[in-house]
Amino acid sequence: MPHHCCVPKCTSNSDTSPDLAWHGFPSDPVQKKVWLVKIRRDEKKDVPKDHPEYFEVTGSTKICSAHFKSEDYHPGDRRRTEKTTDICRRNLNRKANVFPSVFTWTAESKASRKEPAQRHDLQPPAKRKKHAPEKVASWDPPPGSGAAVESNPDNLDAENPTTSTTATSTCVQHCPCVKELQTALDMAMAQNEELQTKCAILEHDAASQKASDSADSMPRFTFGLIKGSNHLVSYYTGFSSVLMLMACFNYLQPSAENMRLWKGADSTADTHPQQGAKPGSKPKLSLLDQFLLVLMRLRLSLGEVDLAFRFQVSQSTVSRLTVTWVNLMYHQFKELPIWLSRRAIDKLMPPCFKTWYPSTRVIIDCTEFYINTPSLLSRQSATWSSYKNHNTVKALIGIAPHGHVTFVSDVYEGSISDKAITEVSGLLQQLEVGDSVMADKGFEIRDMLAAVGVRLNIPPFKSGDRQMTPEALMATKKIAAVRIHVERKMQRIKAYKIIAGDIDTTLFDQLNAIVFVCAMLTNFEGALVA
User: Fold this and answer.
1) CA nearest neighbour of 97 among 38, 156, 173
2) What beta strand segments (E) does 154-279 contain?
3) Which of 366, 360, 365 has the alpha carbon at shortest distance from 457?
4) What is the spatial distance between Cα 122 and Cα 109, in angstroms, rounded to a whole number?
5) CB hemisphere CA count around 494 (13 angstroms)
6) Which of 32, 33, 296, 517 is the 20 to 30 Å CA partner of 440?
């Protein structure tokens, strides 16, 4: 597609002028405005495209090299074409903020005037009247005078009107005041272009300042903005109400007041405070707002830049707060007796379990979390899950019959089996003789549980091609009706979006803490089983 020069009165195009270079408008809005001012055009997008005045700067809008000076190009960027000896340059020195400055109107205004035509007598000597000027042809007006020809215009017009007009025009061309006016006009036009350029820069600066003032005037995101709405609290944090959020915060607050912020991978910051520990530097956010920031990071998986903008802190502060608070909650929640006693389980047992499976102590399931592909080949192989067809990590989650999380294992590589993770997770050491465990068909752990006096309740297997017996179908239906609650709990855990998608490799070192904290936070939500 041929290029056409967008400068008025320029008819150059790449077909007829192959030796010219073609330059697009700069991307910087200020420089773009300067170029538009210099070529005496402005963008007009409010008219139809077929309108003669329509003009829009696009990627294909070009200005030919004929409108630039030689010093506008990089030194040495020149070549001689085969058809002409003119120097042809290709690359503008855009770092110097060059702009087009060679136009037909500048050439016309600076062109030298033609020599005056030879003067002749205005009238033949025989017909000249006595009071007419004697030497009009050789008249040379003195400086500052421009009215000598008009001293007696009536006589001139009466004798020869055409000759009188020609003489007047010739004298005006050589009048010094006219030359001064033309020079002043050229200077005024140059100053006008310079002022338009400065106006464009000032407009850009004013727009930038307005945007900056708008950002500075934006209120910081705080807990006070959402505390009046349980719906907003649930959306941003996952807590079912303001009261539940404050109950959790009040439990964490004494330790949070003495915690020291994490300062990097090489630091040894202690987020599990000890007696007499010296607190570190405190950020400008209150503890409650810090807690809110971290909950929004976990619940909505908001980026660090987004949170930094909302809370008007630096991105590094967001990172440090997240690591510090996640580790604080991990240590504090670990101290809670989440594994309930047999007596507490029986007291909170829902009717559906009391009727069919009264000895149930825990319902277990393994859940996998997608991760980004690790860089090491050995880690790629170890985390590959043939079931999910993706790189994953796996954790064993156990919930009580009434729906609260009572067991969370460490996070293991996705290739580990359900049986192996049950064996190494420490769950068997928590069970007591006479308990029963409910699980899915994939948990082939009956022998391990029998060794500690615990029974396994799983749906019956179908043997061969034979159909399941009515008793087996009824057992499958009963187990499925109560075991569905663990699936609902997994959905609540993965509602924390930081572990719902592909987990970034930068979070691998914190996965144990993040998964455990997200699982514990679901216990502050509403009842799972009525």
Assistant:
1) 38
2) none
3) 360
4) 32
5) 18
6) 517
Q: Give per-10-residue mean pLDDT for the chain (530 aa).
A: 87 87 88 87 79 84 90 67 47 83 72 59 53 47 47 46 51 64 80 81 75 66 92 93 93 92 62 43 81 95 93 92 95 93 90 86 92 89 89 93 92 92 92 90 87 87 66 74 80 92 87 95 79
Give the closest residue to 482 by CA, choosing from 344, 347, 362, 338. 362
Residue 281: both structure tokens together: 């530097």
Q: Which among 261, 228, 270 has a CA at the least distance from the CA of 245? A: 228
Distance CA 133, CA 415 (A): 116
Residue 176's φ and ψ, nearest 5 degrees, are -60, -35
0.85 exceeded by pTM: no
Q: Give the pair of three-digit tokens for residue 514.
A: 């993040």
Per the DSSP assignment, residues forming a β-bridge with 364 are 398
Kindly state the tokens that stand for 83: 């058809």
Segment holding 115, helix H or strand E: none
- Whether the CB-CB separation of 486 and 356 falls below 8 Å is answered with no
Q: Which residue has the tokens 């062109």?
A: 111
Strand, coil or helix: what is 217? Answer: helix
Structure tokens given for 207:
């727009």
Cα–chain center distance at 346: 52
Reduce the secondary structure of 360-388 to three states and give it as a string: EEEEEEEEEEEECCCCCHHHHHHHEECCC
Task: Quote the CA–CA distance of 139 and 148 in Å, as a whole number.
Answer: 9
Helix (H) or strand (E) holding 474: helix 470-493
Lookup: tokens for 370 = 């997608």
Burial of 476 (0-12, 13-18, 19+ CB in 10 A): middle
